[in-house]
Write a structure and sequence with these properties.
Two copies of one chain form a homodimer. With about 350 residues, the first copy, chain A, is α/β, with parallel strands linked by helices. In chain A, about 40% of the residues lie in helices and about 15% in strands. In chain A, helix 1 crosses helix 2 (about 15-25) and helix 8 (about 160-175) packs across helix 9. At the A-B interface, helix 4, helix 5, strand 2, helix 10 and helix 11 of A face helix 4, helix 5, strand 2, helix 10 and helix 11 of B. The first copy, chain A, binds a DNA duplex (16 and 16 nucleotides) through helix 2 and helix 4.
Chain lengths: ~350, ~350
DNA sequence: ATGAAAGCGCTAACAC
DNA sequence: GTGTTAGCGCTTTCAT
């Protein structure tokens, strides 16, 4: 097998402890000794066995991030931020995906890689409060996203209701009155979109408009195809809203595709607002107005919370910080609003 | 700390070995005994310490996938496929990104997580053959992507030259004669795009057209913004090609954005072809003609190669399989070609 | 400043 | 079918 500390020690004619000291950069080693040991390390091509170190230390320095799909750029972009934030604390991130399956979410939250992962950041879709309460795994868990739980875990999420209200207010301000909502869920799974939907309802009500539930379209998932299908379904029902607020950018982009195919102009015939501010939305032919959550802040807060739990510095009560967001206005609501600088974000 | 085998054994009044047998589902355990041990496991909430198991077995069941960027949907989509392929072999994937930094690529290839990952799948940009030859890490490595190496490692890549030639042939067949190439590299880093660029040259030459090097545009990176900038630079130089072949879909999408802003119609004024077939390309307002590499096959071949090395079944010589690809024709080269079914792919 | 030895939790040989 | 024990490679007291 591999070269161990013992082999190096033998070669250098010193004890294991001394080699360990050199490897770990301990201060009290004479330069001469250090050089001699280093020579042996190089000769043998020694590489520390981190697995053994992990066993001994009881921690690995690895945290996991579990998101529904890599295919959704929002999570891909977020994952990049989490990796960077974790690196600043000397943690490596193991990125995993739950494929939108409840089964997989349960497995992950129950610590499928017990003791190899120090902690977990999870963005759930299907998990319920009771699942969380039944959790036996002791590794710290930090939650991400729109779902709400009555469980004692740190949870990082922007103010989805306020953000959705801003989006709808923007549309109302432009004179739109028939604003559809694309991407709601039904049954047990209605949770994910419920805050943004609530924002839609509240802002309409505040403007004296009775929310028209026939303008709310349920989708199977959260992808481009779901948005395209939902928009088509709405139009096929003979409904012609003057604006669309989508659960996320992908749904909005899918909806825009359908509108283009049907010969409807954006925003002249129908204005569109998304949610997430994925990079793609700055490059669509009609650039997409959207809510931009502060992804870097979300990642930083998630990692910081987890690291705080990991080092035992955290308070007993769960943290519920609110990273920021802002409305980014582009061509899909106001023609010519985009100055032609897609890098502006 | 945690509950160990010893604790469970004590509680159940049996030996450690028996508990281990139950945990590992060994056959020769009486049902009564199994039940008794299971009870103790449940009572104590025992979870096997995988770190210890890894140390003992000398392997972890974790493989790493290192890609340049999560932000590029091609890699995000590929990562999803790799995770799935690995799961079929009971391997967990640790996804990492190199941020397009040579430094990071070196670190990863040298096994920055020695002994915690059994093997590595790497999609390099900057790594050179000599870096690979100097590699001391013993964990198997499988390479992905367009770069070519004179090093004894398995390498999975489609036939980039042939694919590029198909793309150019498609444009030639439509009557285009001034076909620009967007996304070349210069200096030491010219490798990544060189095969696709060679395909461009070869196909033009085969058609009796002398490749016009002023139509080749260098980009800083591989993103949408790079494509937008490159297209703008070309037009600002007063060059007006009748078609554009981009190194990848993101560059093509960025280029399309610039064309739209400049009031040029796609494909009537300028046709555009990309490379990668990311989902986004099926939803752009003018859907994008592109080369679709068989991502599932790439992922499968990469994982299979790695697993074969891991289990020692692999031949001595490096494998160089060629997963398939195909040209997908959409609106960006032939108006109305898209039937309005973006799910077609 | 360096060495000796115990032990992290598990699996695999081997004994009973 | 079940128990005993050694040891994977490392860090960490405790000596010296």
């Amino acid at each position: 097998m591999g070269v161990s500390l013992k082999d190096v020690a033998q070669r250098a004619g010193v004890s294991i402890k001394t080699v360990s000291n050199v490897v770990n950069n301990y201060q009290h080693v004479t330069p001469a000794m250090r050089a001699r040991v280093q020579q042996a390390i190089d000769d043998l091509g020694y590489r520390p066995n981190l697995t053994a170190r992990h066993l001994r230390k009881g921690r690995t320095g690895i945290i996991a991030l579990a998101v529904p799909e890599f295919g959704n750029p929002y999570f891909a972009e977020l994952a990049g931020e989490v990796v960077d934030a974790a690196a600043r604390h000397d943690y490596t991130v193991l990125v995993d995906h739950t494929a939108g399956l409840r089964e997989k979410e349960l497995l992950v939250s129950q610590g499928f890689r017990s003791h190899v992962i120090d902690g977990l950041i999870l963005s759930p879709i299907h998990l319920e409060t009771e699942d969380l309460m039944a959790r036996t795994e002791t590794a710290p868990l930090v939650l991400l996203g729109e779902r709400e739980y009555e469980a004692p875990y740190d949870h990082i999420a922007i103010d989805n209701v306020a953000a959705a209200r801003e989006a709808v207010r923007h549309l109302l301000g432009l004179g739109h009155r028939h604003i559809a909502f694309l991407g709601s869920r039904t049954g047990r799974e209605r949770q994910p979109a419920h805050l943004r939907l609530r924002g839609w309802r509240e802002e309409l009500a505040a403007a004296g408009i009775a929310p028209d539930e026939s303008l709310v379209v349920v989708t199977d998932g959260y992808g481009r195809e779901d948005g395209a299908t939902a928009m088509a379904a709405l139009l096929d029902r003979g409904v012609r809203p003057d604006a669309v607020f989508a659960y996320n950018d992908l749904i909005a982009i899918g909806a825009m595709r359908t509108l283009t195919e049907r010969g409807l102009r954006i925003p002249e015939d129908i204005a569109v607002v998304g949610f997430d501010d994925i990079e793609e939305s700055r490059y669509t032919t009609t650039t997409l107005t959207t809510i931009a959550p502060d992804k870097a802040a979300i990642a930083r807060l998630a990692v910081d919370s987890l690291v705080a739990r990991l080092s035992g510095e955290a308070a007993a009560e769960p943290r519920r910080p609110r990273p920021g967001h802002r409305l980014v206005v582009r061509e899909s609501t106001t023609p010519g609003s985009d100055s032609g600088h897609p890098e502006d974000h």
